[in-house]
């Protein structure tokens, strides 16, 4: 049988842009998978200029039955194009879709086999995921004691700032993903970066999701990336993106008690990043808006523009407010 005509059970989808130092490790994680079913890997290269494209072509030539690249001539992200919906998902032939971006990678050769075994035997579950370890590119090592992924039982838990579901470990039913795209229409929502949480919230609401309690992947923290920006403006933009998506979902799924909580969380995040980037006027502006709080004039004078004392005071204030917010969210 011509292997090119074998329909894959799983389509791995991978978006990459200027990730030449990391893309080999990512692709090797796909190729190391040991499965009793066929797979494909759709690699969307968004017009990289650093050699990423050449590396993908190398793997395409070596593994033509698995590596299915999409090479863009112009960067689609900068144009605001929803490239997952327009280019990647339509190419996926599998019954299931697994995610992993070009700077992350898998380390368990049985990752996909474990997930498909579970999903095939438990049709009431639409999505399963695993745990991941965290790699700091700045320190060039896996961070000791820092992991990502935990079991969740309440939909509200997905509205935390920290996503409890590592996107690089997710495997889900494509038919449900297509229903999500048709129903939610994320491409018109203005969510520039945050796209994983809406999918996970929708799946948890419309099916079940499951944690396989194994470490199967490595999440790489790269300073200056989309999700780890280094400028104040981009950090604020990311927080705003986070808030817009979750605010929409809270309204869509009729969770009115979350709206005030989300607004306060947004302001707390704004204030925290303002102090980190020494934007003290913005810090004072945002922190005074949280739950109608005001800063005492004397305390302002004592703190002044000292980053040390501002950070100490901020840490105390944020901790106190967050504890109150979380308590109100879950116990009121």
Provide the fold topology.
Layout: E1 10-16, H1 23-31, E2 39-45, H2 52-62, E3 67-71, H3 83-88, E4 96-99, E5 105-106, H4 111-121, E6 125-136, E7 141-148, E8 171-173, H5 174-184, H6 196-206, E9 208-221, H7 232-252, H8 257-276, H9 280-287, H10 297-303, H11 307-331
Parallel strand pairs: 1-2, 1-4, 2-3, 6-9
Antiparallel strand pairs: 4-8, 5-9, 6-7, 6-8
Question: Main traits of this protein?
Answer:
single chain, 332 residues, alpha/beta, Spore Coat Polysaccharide Biosynthesis Protein SpsA, Chain A, 2 domains, 9-stranded mixed β-sheet, 11 helices
Description:
The chain is an alpha/beta fold. It has 2 domains: 3-221, Alpha-Beta Complex (Spore Coat Polysaccharide Biosynthesis Protein SpsA, Chain A); 256-331, no CATH class. The chain is built from 11 helices and 9 strands. It has helices at residues 23-31, 52-62, 83-88, 111-121, 174-184, 196-206, 232-252, 257-276, 280-287, 297-303, 307-331; strands spanning 10-16, 39-45, 67-71, 96-99, 105-106, 125-136, 141-148, 171-173, 208-221. Strands 1, 2, 3, 4, 5, 6, 7, 8 and 9 form a 9-stranded mixed beta sheet that branches. The N and C termini lie far apart (62 Å). Residues 293-302 have low confidence and may be disordered.
Write a short abstract of this structure.
The chain is an alpha/beta fold and 332 residues long.
Tally of alpha and pi helices: 11
Total count of domains? 2
Distance between the termini: 62 Å
* Overall pLDDT score: 87
What level of helicity do the residues show? Answer: 40-55%
Number of strands: 9
Q: What general form does the structure show? A: globular
Q: Please identify which CATH superfamily of the largest domain we are dealing with.
A: Spore Coat Polysaccharide Biosynthesis Protein SpsA, Chain A
Oligomer: single chain
Task: Bin the strand percentage.
Answer: 15-25%
CATH topology title of the largest domain: Spore Coat Polysaccharide Biosynthesis Protein SpsA, Chain A
CATH class of the largest domain: Alpha Beta
């Amino acid at each position: 049988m011509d292997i090119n005509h074998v329909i894959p059970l799983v389509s791995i989808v991978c978006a990459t842009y200027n990730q030449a130092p990391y893309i080999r490790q990512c692709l090797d994680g796909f190729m190391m998978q040991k499965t009793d079913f066929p797979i494909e890997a759709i690699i969307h290269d968004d017009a990289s200029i650093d050699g990423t494209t050449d590396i993908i072509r190398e793997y395409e030539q070596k593994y033509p039955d698995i590596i299915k690249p999409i090479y863009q001539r112009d960067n689609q992200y900068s144009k605001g194009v929803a490239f997952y919906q327009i280019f990647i998902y339509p190419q996926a032939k599998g019954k299931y879709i697994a995610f992993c971006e070009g700077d992350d990678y898998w380390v368990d050769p049985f990752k996909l086999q474990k997930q498909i075994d579970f999903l095939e035997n438990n049709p009431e579950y639409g999505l399963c995921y695993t745990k991941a370890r965290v790699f700091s590119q700045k320190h060039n090592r896996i961070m000791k004691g820092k992991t990502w992924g935990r079991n969740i039982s309440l939909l509200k838990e997905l509205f935390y700032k920290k996503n409890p579901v590592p996107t690089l470990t997710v495997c889900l039913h494509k038919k449900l993903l297509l229903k999500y795209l048709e129903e939610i229409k994320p491409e018109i929502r203005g969510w520039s970066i945050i796209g994983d949480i809406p999918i996970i919230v929708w799946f948890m609401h419309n099916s079940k999701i499951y944690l396989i309690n194994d470490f199967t992947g490595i999440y790489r923290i790269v300073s200056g990336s989309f999700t780890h920006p280094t400028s104040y403006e981009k950090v604020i933009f990311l927080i705003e993106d986070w808030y817009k998506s979750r605010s929409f979902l809270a309204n869509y799924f009729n969770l009115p008690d979350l709206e005030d909580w989300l607004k306060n969380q947004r302001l707390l995040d704004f204030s925290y990043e303002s102090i980190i980037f020494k934007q003290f006027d913005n810090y004072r502006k945002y922190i005074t808006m949280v739950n109608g709080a005001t800063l005492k004039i004397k305390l302002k004078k004592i703190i002044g523009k000292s980053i040390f004392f501002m950070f100490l005071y901020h840490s105390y204030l944020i901790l106190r407010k967050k504890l109150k917010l979380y308590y109100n969210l879950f116990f009121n």
